[in-house]
Amino acid sequence: MTIYRTWPLANALFVAGFISQPAVAQDTAAQAQAEDTGEIVVTAQRREESLQRTPVAVSAFTATMLEQRGVTKLENIAASTPGLNITPITASPNAIMISMRGALEQNGGTITAESPVAIYIDDVYQSRLSGANYDLADIVRVEVLRGPQGTLYGRNSMTGAIKLITRQPDGKTWLNTDVSYASFQETKAKVSVGGPVTDHIAVAASAFYNQRGKGWQYNEVLDKRVSTFKKYGVQLAVGLYDIPGVEAVLTGRYVAGLSDGQHYAPLDLTTGGNLAGGVYNTRTPRDDADGDNRQKSVSLRLGYDVGDITIRSITAYQEMKDNWALDFSGGYDSPFTGTTIAGFFRSSAGKQNQFTQEFQALGKAFDNRLNWIVGAFYYKEKASQSFLNDDLAAFFLTYEPSVFDTTSKSLAFYAQADYEIIDDLKVSVGIRHTNDKKTFDGLSPTAPGLGAPLAASLTGTKADVWTPKVNIQYNFTPDIMAYATVSRGYRAGGFNSLVIADPANFGSPYAPEFAWSYEFGLKAQTANRKAYLNIAAYHEQLSDLQTLTDCGNGCFTIQNAAKAKVQGIEWEGGLKPVTGLSLFVSGAYTFDKYQKLDPGSQAALNGATRLPMISRWQYQFGGSYEIGLGDAGSVMLAADYNYRGRFNTQVPLYTFSEVKAIDRGNASITYTTADKHLDIYLQATNVTNSKDYVSALVFIPGVFGTLYPAEPRIWRGGFRYKF
Questions:
Q1: Where do the DSSP E strands lie in 423-479?
Q2: Regions of the chain with pLDDT less than 50
Q3: Which of 41, 71, 239, 536 could staple 25 via S-S, CB 3.0–4.6 A?
């Protein structure tokens, strides 16, 4: 799909007439209020408040917005969120690679990886990216907070946080069903039901099943289609309701994502094209790739009001098993044998469990001019992983398995208070102290060959970190607000595990990464709530930047190699010019540059000046129009277009590790009955069937690399029934 792009500056000007995409309250009542009156409520500061008076850059997506844009998993959110990049390019389709405002994590398939963007499900921290490409099956709302969130969201929220909120038991009776059939023999069904059990006890239950029977990629050596999957899950929440001042919800959750693995295409290191031909072809001769992830969790949320003070407790325990296997070459033409072989095949078996406990106390004082919150957070994780099969057939090398265990403990205390000094002028101050301790214990071969000796690695790392925040906001009118924020973000350090027969690097620790952020924001809306605009301009200073570097023959390590600056402007806006018509636009311009590099780092040795995974321009626009049919119901037409500029996936900025600009569109048409109980819909993602790659990797320079394509056009038809 080609569009002449002479308009990015015009887009920025055009934004001024548009309405920001809504962030809604944590309960369904507030969500309904937002849809009916336009009064938007968010919980970005751990309490409910109007979006237009919240001094934080927030993007939010309701269930309806997700449906209209064809968003079915976490990675799809990035197209609609300024400054965010999420791709499923790592070891398994269940895992993600994530980047926001310059900080990134690229090896989410390992237990040693730490994300710079904290992910929460119902306020429970999710530590592992290896199972983070969640199916958005029963999501009420997704909120993306941009910028350091270290004061209130803590560990690994260095440049932002993503919150997934599911429907909770509230004493109301409801039933939502969604059944659909899509391209490539994909069937999907989900159901959510809730209601009271007694006068004060209610339940909310949901389940989903999603299977793709025919892959959209083709392996020409095996002569079969690949990229099939099966996903399913259940969630049950039991809670108290209609008891003033008391909150209690117990939630259990189980999800599984099973697939035939990640299938890379072989990269032509002379032209940058696909050696297998076409866009969607691969050719590894191995038929034992897979990607299986299973997670289960239980959480308990308690709350109690003591006068003007609310006390909360959030307790959770989670377990995960994650197995994957793939050929990182996509099929390598051996110059020695003249045949196509699996250039580097690796399989992994991992498991993890974590316990988290958070306590909060929050309240108001001085005639509500003071809002405050204090809290404590404890996190403990145990994880293990084994690289069972390291077969570097390109060099006729096979290695003994590498095995390693990690533990992580984190204890944090935080406080934040905002005070309205005079009418419309508010100052906020926050601080968080985090103590992290981690250990690594593993065995790795010292040389290639079966029977090679193993070397032990036992290391540890710890950190004591203070992350402050100061914010000033001023309400010029009831509908126009500006704010300025200075804050510090932090990402924990970790250990190197993606090495082969390299005892010196296996288990070697790398240090935490930090960001100082300076942000100015403006939020404005019209009095009738028909139009509003949110803009955030920021400057971030990154230090001890964690960069994934190539150490040869399929070996990768993380170096604290750089200081860098990332700055930009982000906008979200929209307009409701006439009844039934809603338009939106969002975008970001990002400038990045290394300021200081370790002379021995791979970035310095290759003369890199920019950071990986950052596009200069990113934007999206679209809208929906509802056509009333009287007693026959209504028809909703929706469409959107998104663009992400070119970016490079690797620190050395190789010529052929650059991903070209990606532009895609989605469209849908939905018929709704007059009683609002039944929807019948047809939608298409990538409606123009644009053929794009989302990743390009020079895996072993001069030997082989890989490409990974984005999905082709997907048609989906189905129905939703709800009451």
A1: 425-445, 454-466, 469-477
A2: 1-37
A3: 41
Give the total number of structural domains in the chain.
Answer: 1
- 4 inside domain: no
CA 691/CA 40 separation, integer angstroms: 37
Q: 109-126 burial by CB neighbour count: b if 16+ within 10 A, else e?
A: bbbbbbbbbbbbbbbbbb
Domain contains 5: no
Instruction: Report the distance separating Cα 455 and Cα 450, nearest Å.
Output: 14
Question: DSSP character for 73?
Answer: B
User: Which residue matches tokens 């920021």?
Assistant: 538
pLDDT digits 0-9 by tens, 668-701: 999 999 999 999 999 999 999 999 999 999 999 9
What is the per-residue pLDDT for 16? 34
Own/partner long-range contacts of 593-598 (Cβ < 8 Å, ≥24 apart):
593/564, 593/565, 594/562, 594/563, 594/564, 595/562, 595/563, 595/564, 595/565, 596/562, 596/563, 597/561, 597/562, 598/559, 598/560, 598/561, 598/562
Identity at 377, one-letter amino acid code: F
The pLDDT of residue 5 is 37
Burial class (CB in 10 A: 0-12, 13-18, 19+), 203: middle
> What tokens were used for 401?
């398995």
Residue 553: half-sphere exposure toward Cβ, Cα within 13 Å: 16
- 6 domain residue, yes or no: no
Whole-number pLDDT of residue 154: 66
Taking the CA atoms of the chain, what radius of gyration do you get in angstroms? Answer: 25
Buried b (16+ CB within 10 A) or exposed e, 621-633: bbbbebeeeeeeb
> For residue 621, which of 681, 572, 688 has the smallest C-alpha distance?
572
Specify if 10 maps to a domain: no
- Kind and range of the H or E run holding 11: helix 8-14
Domain residues for 201?
Answer: 24-722
Mean pLDDT of the residues in the chain: 90
Strands (E) across 102-157 are located at 103-105, 117-121, 124-126, 139-146
Instruction: Supply the CATH number for residue 410's domain.
Output: 2.40.170.20
Per-residue pLDDT, 701: 92
